[in-house]
Amino acid sequence: MLKVKKIDTAVGDASEVAAVLDAAGVQFNDIACVNWPEEFPYAPQAQFRLAHTGNALLIDYRVTEDSVASVAAGDNGRVWEDSCCELFLQPEAGGPYYNIECNCTGTLLIACGPVRDNREPAPREVLESVKRWSSLGREPFAERIGRTEWHLSLIVPATAFFRHHIATFSGQMKGNAYKCGDCLQKPHFLSWAPIPIPSPDFHRPDHFAPIEME
Q1: Architecture of domain 14-192 in CATH?
Q2: pLDDT cut 70: percent of the chain above it
């Protein structure tokens, strides 16, 4: 189980997230499950940490990998093909879940649904409500070969969970965190909680792990 700490500090910009979480003592969690080692053995170093302020979720990623890319031109594009970190959250047991996917320059995809297919993309105003900061800047670029460390922070308001009415984050959820790069020179599909199935598929709520919001 992952316990998500509630903090009282106001966070106005995503560039402040890391410092706020440091001050609150929020620790990183490894995204290190290589679920399909025969086909996709490469494992970059990837970590994430979460906290919330009641009405916003603070997400912080730290990654070191052998190449980086940010090709997706805009939000709700194919960000999973780039250097990408993802958080999937299911607010209610057995209900629809959200995939919050963000590439290394903060280009974002959010959708909701009960399964992989026919997911409902977040409307433009939802995407625009999410504050983002990346150590690599915000401009897209083609793949850069070479070991690179990057840092990504997001502030996701409760209203971004657009098919639910979350007054405040609290109680039990389920979910998983991922690091992928489908079209990089070394494709990879890492998860925080293991996914014991034969081939890569992050859309598996049956293998989500418990997440407790303080």
Answers
A1: Sandwich (2.60)
A2: 100
